[in-house]
Amino acid sequence: MESNSTDTETGDKCDINGDCSPTPHKDTASFNHSKNIDDISTPSELKFDEDFEFEDPDVTEKRNELERCLKNPDLINLEQWQNFAKSKAGLIADEYRRQIWPLLVGVTIEEMTDPPSLDDLSKHSEYHQVVMDVNRSLKRFPPGIPYEQRVALQDQLTVLILRVIMKYPHLKYYQGYHDVAITLLLVCGDKASFPLLCRLSYGPGAPLAPFMQTTLQPTQHLLNYMFPVIRRADDRLADCLDKAGVGTMFALPWYLTWFGHSLNRYADVVRLYDYFLCAPPLFPVYVTAALVLHRAPAVLQCDCDMAMMHCLLSRLPDDLPFEDILVTAKKLYEENDPSDLEAEVKALEKREEEQRKLDQERMKRRQAGRVAPRGGPRRWFASLPAALRRPAGRRACLALTAALFAIYVYYRPELFRNHEDSAEL
Questions:
Q1: What's the chain's Rg over C-alpha atoms?
Q2: Quick check: 310 and 246 in contact, CB under 8 A?
Q3: CB of 305 closer than 8 Å to CB of 396
Q4: Cα–Cα–Cα angle for 167, 169, 170, nearest 5°?
C-alpha cells in the first residue's frame, strides 16, 4: 500500500477529537511546503446556478420552520440548530446559513469586528504565498461577478487568512486552507467569517487544527481511519484498494478542504459544511469512506493498478447523492467509534512502515548492484515490472508522470519563470 507517512517528525500530535499540541518553539515563519495537496493543476469550477422549479414539500416545510425560528433565535438552543443543519437539505439557503453557521460554533456578535486593511498585513512572511493561492481560487468565485467586486473579495479572502495565522502564529498555513476560507467568506461575509475560521483552526476539537501543524503526519494518521471503516463495511472493496496500493492521497484534498476544492457544485459544498460544522472533527473521514463505498461498483471494475485507481477515485462525479452519503456516514460513525479503530489504524501504519523499510532496502541493493542491461532491447523490456509491460500500465504510468509534472509546475511556477527570464537575458 502507498505510504502515507512521508513526514517522520514526531513534534505534531493530534488525537481523534482534533486536539493538537501547540508548537511555540518552532520557527513560526516557516511555511508548510509539504502540504501541496492537489493532484490536478486547477481547482474545480463551482456552479452557482441552482434554481429549481420544484422543491420537495418536506424542504419547503423546513424552510418555513427555519424562518420562524430565525425571527426569535434566542429561543432556539444549539441542539435545535444542529438538527436543522444535519437533517435533509441542511440549512437550505445561504440567507439562513449566514445567521446559523456562526451559532453552530459559538461565535458571538461581539467577535464580529471590522477587519484591518490589506496594507496592514502585507508585511507578513506568508503574505505572498497566500496571495498566490487566492489568485488561483478565481474559479471558486460566483461567475459573472463584476471585476471590482471580485478584486474586493480576493482582498477580503487574503485578509481573512492572514488574520487567523497572525492571531495563532504557531499554526502553519497550508495550501487548501483558502478553499475553506472562501466558502465561509462567501456565505458569512468578512466580519463573521473571521471568528468562525478561528474556531475551526484553533482550540479543543478544532477540526482544521491537525492540518496546520509543521508536518503532514497528524493529517495522514487521521485519514488512515478511512480504511478500517471501509473494511468493516465491505471486505472485498478493502482488498481491492489494498491490492492496488492506492493509499489515501486521492482523498487528501477532500479532507483538507472539506471537499471545497474538489466538488463542482456550490450547493454540495455548503451542504457538507452545514453538517461538518456541527459534527465530530473526524466525521469528514467517515464521509470519505461512505463516498468510496458508494463508488464500489466502479472501483471493483477498475484495473487493479495504483495510477488508474487513483485517477478514478480522485475525480468526483457531479451527481453524487450527498444526502444518502451523509446518512451512510452517520451510520458508519455510530457503528465504528474512532476509539474502537485505533488498534486497526496502528496495525495498518506498522505494516506500511515495515513495507517502506523493505522498499528502501531493496532500492539500496539495486543501486549497489546496478549493471547495464544485456541482451538488447528485448532483455531490457523483460526487466521492467509486469505492470509496466502491459500497454494499459504504461499509459497509466505516463498519465501519472504528466499529472505529477503538472502539479510541480502549478505549485512552483517561479522556477520556470526564472529560467525563461535567464534565457531572455
A1: 23
A2: yes
A3: yes
A4: 130
User: Which residue type does 154 have?
Assistant: Q
For helices 226-233 and 283-294, angle between their N-to-C axes, nearest 10 degrees: 40
CA-based torsion, 124, 42, 221, 5: positive or negative? negative
Which one, of 326, 244, 255, lies nearest residue 293 by Cα? Answer: 326
The 8-class DSSP code of residue 248 comes to S
Q: Which residue has the cell 503574505?
A: 127
What are the tens digits of pLDDT across the range 50-87?
555 578 899 999 999 999 999 999 999 999 999 999 99
H-only helix segments in 169-264: 177-201, 217-223, 226-233, 235-244, 252-257
Check: CB of residue 44 under 8 Å from CB of residue 259: no
Q: How far apart are CA 252 and CA 36, in angstroms?
A: 10
**pLDDT one-digit tens code per residue, 233-275:** 999 999 999 999 899 999 999 999 999 999 989 999 999 999 9
Q: Are 304 and 262 in contact (CB under 8 A)?
A: no
Q: Helix (H, G, I), strand (E, B), or coil: what is residue 25?
A: coil
Look at the pTM and tell me if it is higher than 0.85. no
3-state secondary structure of 244: helix
